[in-house]
């Protein structure tokens, strides 16, 4: 029989999980406003992309890139449904799952009710991921329509200021879609950390903090960010004149 005190570590772990996930999301958004990160640098590249798109007569390659991004979101949305189906299947046979977990080393024995709560919390995480990926897909659809509506090179009634505003608008829509995709990936990261909750709440809290560290290093201190921010160009060596 489990007492109320035995549930306190699990309550602390859930609160810690929510604080880490929500707190890092708010922190990353705030810090990215004045600090180079993957999201802010990619938005600048998207603005350059849209400005160059307006200088091209053919936009087939640009539409293909947006389609590829949309298919990536579609893949994760479909995978999320499969994961949710698996969680619901385990939820229907929770007694057997509890007995199997109890035989593993370092696993804290939990009641059936607590195991079902853990599975429900895990399903909530992936339901959130499904909604973010599907909203990302819709936003990429909007971006594809905007690319199709982009003014052509020879249109004289479109001013340069209107072209610049249009490029910024399309880049913003694509960045919003990319942000939703990023939120969905974060849900996967934290969902994997939640699997440690089935071992014990302390490992769950430790892995949740580890996910925050991994996300921070990748978004603000990764090698790919350094390359995109600044890539040194070798000096041009003049050719020697032949005698």
Automatic annotation (TrEMBL):
Extract the signal peptide range: none
Q: Which UniProt keywords apply?
A: Membrane, Transmembrane, Transmembrane helix
Where would you find the membrane-spanning parts of this chain?
6-24, 73-91, 117-136, 195-216
* Pfam families, alphabetized: DUF599
Q: What is this protein called?
A: DUF599 domain-containing protein
- Organism name: Azotobacter chroococcum NCIMB 8003
């Amino acid at each position: 029989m489990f007492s109320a005190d035995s549930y306190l570590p699990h309550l602390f772990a859930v609160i810690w999980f929510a604080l880490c996930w929500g707190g890092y999301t708010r922190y990353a958004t705030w810090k990215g406003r004045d600090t180079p990160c993957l999201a802010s640098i990619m938005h600048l590249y998207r603005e350059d992309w849209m400005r160059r798109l307006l200088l091209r007569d053919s936009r087939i390659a640009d539409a293909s890139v947006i389609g590829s991004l949309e298919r990536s979101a579609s893949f994760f949305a479909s995978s999320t449904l499969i994961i949710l189906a698996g969680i619901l299947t385990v939820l229907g046979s929770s007694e057997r799952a509890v007995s199997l977990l109890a035989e593993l080393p370092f696993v804290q024995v939990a009641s059936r009710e607590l195991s079902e709560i853990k599975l429900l919390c895990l399903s909530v995480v992936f339901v959130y991921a499904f909604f973010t990926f599907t909203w990302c897909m819709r936003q990429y659809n909007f971006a594809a329509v905007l690319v199709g509506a982009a003014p052509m090179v020879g249109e004289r009634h479109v001013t340069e200021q209107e072209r610049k505003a249009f490029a910024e608008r399309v880049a913003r829509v694509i960045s919003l879609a990319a942000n939703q995709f990023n939120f969905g990936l974060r849900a996967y990261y934290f969902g994997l950390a939640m699997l440690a909750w089935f071992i014990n709440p302390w490992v769950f809290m430790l892995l949740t903090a580890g996910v925050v560290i991994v996300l921070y290093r990748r978004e603000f201190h990764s090698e790919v960010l350094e390359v995109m921010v600044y890539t040194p160009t070798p000096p041009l060596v003049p050719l020697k004149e032949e005698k």
